[in-house]
Amino acid sequence: MAKSVLFLVPYPLKVAPSQRFRVELYEPVLQEHNVRYEIASFMDDATWNIIFKPGNTFKKIAGIAKGYLRRIGHLFKATQYDYVFIHREVAPLGPPIFEWIIAKVLHKKIIYDFDDAIWISNISTANKFASWLKAFWKVKYICKWAHVVTGGNEYLNNYARQHNARQTIILPTCVDVERKHNKVKIHGNHKPVIGWTGSHSTLFYLDEIVPLLKKLQEENNFTFLVIADKKPEIDLRDWQFIKWNEATEGSDLLKMDIGIMPLKSDAWSEGKCGFKLIQYLSCGIPAIADPIGVNKVIIDNEKNGFICSTKEEWKEKLQLLITDPALRKELGEKGREKIKKEYSIQSQAQKFLALFQ
Q1: Which residue stretches of the chain are H helix?
Q2: What are the distances in angstroms from CA 10 to CA 7, 23, 54, 74, 201?
Q3: C-alpha R_g of the chain
Q4: Which residues sit opposite 41 in a β-bridge?
Q5: I need a labelling partner for 124 at 20 to 30 A (CA). Which of 1, 88, 170, 303 fits?
Q6: How far apart are CA 308 and CA 306, in angstroms?
Q7: For residues 11 and 40, what is the distance between their CA atoms, to the nearest angstrom?
C-alpha cells in the first residue's frame, strides 16, 4: 500500500536552496514510487520577495499572519496523511505549537529535517525586530517528538541524538545528476574563472577571501564570479555578478573553472552542509574550502579539490589550479564521480523512501 506524506516547508516553491534540494528535488522519486504527497508552504511569493529586505514592516507582518492562517488549514490536511515531513520548522516565530499538535493531538509520525544549526540564533539584519520572537530552543522539542530526524551531516545529527532516542539519519543535501546537474565543465586553456555561489545570508563569507583574490589578481589573469540573489560590493578589478536564476542555475555554474567555499570557524559554520561544494563537484569543477565541518568529508584533499587551513595554502592551491587546466579536469572528474555515488538523489533515493516505511 502506497504511503502518503504532507511536506510542511517554510518557503514558496523553487526559491530557497535548502528546501529545493532537500524536499522539492525528490518529487520525481516520490512520483515514481506512487507516494501520495503534498508540499505546503508557510510563506507566499509576495512575502518572500520582501522578507529579507529592509523596511515593509507592516507588509511583512501581514504576510506572516497569512502564513499562520494557512498553517491552521494545513493541520486539517495533516489528518489525511500517514506522515508529516517538517523541513526546519512549521512556523517561523514563537513556540512549536503546530508541531506539538501534529505529534501529540493528531498522533502523526513526524519526519523532522534540517540542514543548518538552527538551534543557534542567526537573524538577518533586515529583521532584527523579529529576533526576540524567534524560539530557537524549540528545535530540541521537535527532535524529541519526531519519529525520525534527518540531518544533513554528522554535526547536526549529534545534536539531534541528544534529544531523540528513536532514530536519527544523515541525509546529505543532494543534486539530481540526471535531470539537473547533468552537464560537466569542459576545462581548457581559456581565461580561468574562480567562482562562488550562495544566498544573501552567506555573502559575508566572501569577506574572508576577497583580499587574497585581490593579491592573486596582481599576478594572475582570472575573473571572479559571484552567483547570488543579491549583488555584493567587492573590491576587485576583474569580477562578475550573475543574479541567481533557477532556470539558468546549471549553465551559470558551468561558467566556473574553480569553485570556492570559505567559512568562519564557529558553531554555525560547523553545521553547514557543504552544498556549494556539492554543486561545484557535480559539474566537474574542482573545489577549495576551509577545513570546517563537512567540507573535510566532501573534499578528498588533493583528489577532487583542496582543503586549505591558511591563507598561504589558499593562495598556493588557487595559483596551482589557475595555471593547470589538466589538473582542474582531473580533479573535476573525480569530484563528479564522488557526487554521483554519495550526494545525488539517485544514490540516496532508497534512504529517502525508507523514511516513509
Answers
A1: 17-22, 27-32, 45-51, 57-78, 97-100, 138-145, 154-161, 210-217, 249-253, 267-270, 275-282, 295-298, 311-323, 325-342, 345-354
A2: 10, 11, 20, 13, 16
A3: 21
A4: 9
A5: 170
A6: 6
A7: 9
User: CA 52 to CA 275: how far, in whole Å?
Assistant: 21
Neighbours of 67 (CB within 10 A): 19
**Could you give the 3-state DSSP secondary structure of residue 191?**
coil
Q: Is the pTM value of this prediction over 0.85?
A: yes
Hey, what amino acid is at 52?
A: F
- 158 three-state secondary structure: helix
* H/E segment holding residue 241: strand 239-243
DSSP H helices, 271-344, are 275-282, 295-298, 311-323, 325-342
Partners of 112 in the β-ladder: 86, 149
How far apart, in whole angstroms, are the C-alpha atoms of residue 195 and residue 119?
30
Q: Which three cell numbers stand for residue 127?
A: 529583521
Specify the DSSP class assigned to residue 233: P
Q: Which residues contact residue 186 at a Cβ distance below 8 angstroms, ignoring those fewer than 6 apart?
A: none
Query: Hey, is 333 helix, strand or coil?
Result: helix
Which ranges of the chain have pLDDT less than 50?
1, 126-127
Residue 33: the pLDDT is 94
The pLDDT, as a whole number, for residue 126 is: 46
**Are the beta carbons of 163 and 143 closer than 8 angstroms?**
yes
The whole-number pLDDT of residue 1 equals 45
Q: Are 152 and 141 in contact (CB under 8 A)?
A: no
* DSSP notation for 82-124: SEEEEES-SSSSSS-HHHHIIIIIS-PEEEEEESS-TTS----
Output the nine-digit C-alpha cell for 290: 576551509
| DSSP letter for each residue of 261-284 | E---SSHHHHT---HHHHHHHHTT
Alpha-carbon gap, residue 153 to 114, rounded angstroms: 10
